[in-house]
Amino acid sequence: MKYRRKDKLLIVASWKIKPKARPAITAVVGLSFGRYIVEPFFDPCPAPALAIKLLTVVGVSLIMWINSWSVNWTARVQIILTISKLVALGLIIILGMMALAQGHNENFQNAFNSSSVTLDKIPLAFYSGMFAYSGWFYMNFFTEEVINAERNIPLAIISSIVIITILYLLVNVAYYTVLTADEVMASGAVAVTFAERTLKSFSSVIQILVSLSCLGAITGGLFSASRVFFVASRENQWPTIFSMIHIRHHTPLPAVILIYPLVILMIFIGDLYGLLNLNSFPRWLFMGFVTFGLIRHRYKQPDLHRPFKVPMIIPGLFSALCLFIVATSLYSDPLSTGISCALTLSGVPVYYLMINRYQGPAWCRKALHLFTVKLQILMEVVAQEIVTY
After folding, report:
1. How many beta carbons lie within 10 A of that of residue 51, not counting itself?
2. Which H or E element spans position 354?
3. Radius of gyration, alpha carbons of the chain
């Protein structure tokens, strides 16, 4: 069975994949989707948490089905939902700039007042800020499926970061032109509050576009996260079943399904900001370690072929900043950070169990093989026949 979809759609669709690939982040974006759909129906009262969570489960389940069914469908849906994101951002920016041109700049008075800033808030603020810009590294998760990856991946990463930085900056200017800082903090769905203030009876347009944007983020996140499990299994760091693909749809079905129950669990037991902090600790900890490993690898093997290079000062500064923010977050939010650390460490025995699985007891190996065969039959998956790596 061949697992190789060099579809040009993947290049276009991957330019803005949010960090929505781990279960916690997928749950965060999903809850944002649910809130933007439900909130207007209960305005001015707060929307029931259960209603938000149930609608979130429906949205995540739909995206999970698309990711399981077809790579091409996933790419096309991602393109459509990305366009909806750009339309929503463009509409917010235009409305905000119109208000700013009319002289509504009173909310920018003392905008950089730091009297309320405390040390314990800084790392959590960085977590929330970097969450919006952290989709760039997910492109490396599906290098095998990208045409001319040596050229297109750096190009897509650089262009997407520049575009998103400009768009998000303008969107925030638009928000604070119309809303005060207190109104932004009090709003459960800022874009909806902004639209109600500017579009009046047509505010549902923003609501729909932002909701579609959240679904687009979930789509890209699930697409890239499943490839992590797929490759880990292929490298004997995860059960063999997760390196298999569907015989007809050519999707890594077991790897896609694996993340689904974890996402649903986190949707029901967590809240948006708690899940964000829970996910941010391991994410930026390992990001710092990975970039540090890049530096070490460059010095250990200086003659190794590298399709593209960056100046060493860039990974050095990035690694230092990541590790500094992670260290200070232990003080800012010890509960979420501690739980996240414990969950991360729980993967160590699983990793070594998978690495040494062929040296375990015969009955254990036989049971694992039988379980794998049964799942193969149930999900109609097989190991890939053509090497694409």
Report:
1. 16
2. helix 347-355
3. 22
> What H or E segment, with its residue span, contains residue 241?
none
The SS3 call for residue 164 is helix
Residue 378 has a CB neighbour count (10 Å cut-off) of 9
Residue with tokens 């089905």: 65
Q: Classify the C-alpha dihedral 230-236-240-244 as positive or negative.
A: positive
CB 93 within 8 A of CB 171: yes
Estimate to the nearest angstrom the gap between the alpha carbon of 184 and the chain centroid: 23
Residue 267 and residue 31 in contact, taking contact as beta carbons nearer than 8 Å: yes
> Per-residue confidence of the chain (389 residues) as pLDDT tens digits?
333 433 333 222 333 333 334 677 788 888 888 888 887 777 777 778 888 889 989 988 998 888 888 888 888 888 888 888 888 888 889 998 998 888 888 888 877 776 666 666 777 777 777 777 766 776 776 677 677 877 888 888 888 888 888 988 899 899 999 888 888 887 767 887 888 888 877 777 888 888 888 888 888 778 877 887 888 888 777 788 888 888 888 888 888 888 888 888 888 877 766 777 677 778 888 888 888 888 888 888 888 887 777 888 888 998 888 888 888 877 777 777 778 788 778 877 777 776 666 666 777 778 878 888 888 888 888 887 666 65
State if pTM tops 0.90. Answer: no
Q: Rounded to whole angstroms, how far apart are CA atoms 164 and 151?
A: 20
Reference 26, options 216, 174, 207, 153; nearest CA is 216
- The residue type of 271 is D
DSSP state of 179: S
Provide the strand spans (E) within the chain. 244-246, 381-383
Work out the angle at residue 191's Cα, subtended by the Cα atoms of residues 81 and 215, and round it to the nearest 5 degrees. 25
